[in-house]
Amino acid sequence: MKKLLDKNDKIALQKLSAKYGFKNELQMPKISKVVINCGFNPARDNEAILKEMKLNLAKITGQIPAIRKAKKAIAGFKIRKGDPVGYIVTLRGRRMHDFLEKLIRVALPRIRDFKGLDTKGFDGHGNYTLALREHITFPEIQAEEADKLFGMQISIVTTAGNNEVAKDLLQNLGFVYRG
């Protein structure tokens, strides 16, 4: 864990301050939180699968996920307002850094034919979102024990004001982009 923090504080500070002219540490962009979302629409009625999803997500993140409920009714998906539609985990501090370390060093390299992350995942305000199709890319989950595979959406929220600065910050932390 300490490796990612050291890399962020020292190397990123030097490179980003030289490139963008940051004069002190308070101007430096930082990662403020990581949000992980899992939708469970196909398995909504199966309690065993929902329980397994919750336990697996808790193993991966180190934190118990919260249930997300539908904000409005959508007849085409047979969802009513207030129905549970997914799990969400918001990570900050040490758990966030541990999760990012695991994502960068273990999970992403385990993806078959991984050539880097797509730069289209930036939202214009310096936040990056990526999607994983299978949760078994994380080392805590054994592929043989997983009854149902589920994907997740991972949003990395930074204090950078634009995509270019955020991209450089994440690249200095170890994220690899295509091209």
TrEMBL record:
Keyword Ribonucleoprotein: yes
Keyword match RNA-binding: yes
Boundaries of every Large ribosomal subunit protein uL5 N-terminal domain copy: 24-80
UniProt-recorded Gene Ontology molecular function terms: rRNA binding; structural constituent of ribosome; tRNA binding
Keyword entries, A-Z: Ribonucleoprotein, Ribosomal protein, RNA-binding, rRNA-binding, tRNA-binding
A Gene Ontology biological process term: translation
Highest taxon of the lineage: Bacteria
Domain Large ribosomal subunit protein uL5 C-terminal: 84-176
InterPro entries, A to Z: Ribosomal_uL5 (IPR002132), Ribosomal_uL5_bac-type (IPR020930), Ribosomal_uL5_C (IPR031309), Ribosomal_uL5_dom_sf (IPR022803), Ribosomal_uL5_N (IPR031310)
Entry's Gene Ontology cellular component terms: ribonucleoprotein complex; ribosome
Known role: This is 1 of the proteins that bind and probably mediate the attachment of the 5S RNA into the large ribosomal subunit, where it forms part of the central protuberance. In the 70S ribosome it contacts protein S13 of the 30S subunit (bridge B1b), connecting the 2 subunits; this bridge is implicated in subunit movement. Contacts the P site tRNA; the 5S rRNA and some of its associated proteins might help stabilize positioning of ribosome-bound tRNAs.
Oligomer and partners: Part of the 50S ribosomal subunit; part of the 5S rRNA/L5/L18/L25 subcomplex. Contacts the 5S rRNA and the P site tRNA. Forms a bridge to the 30S subunit in the 70S ribosome.
Protein family (similarity comment): Belongs to the universal ribosomal protein uL5 family.
This protein's name: Large ribosomal subunit protein uL5
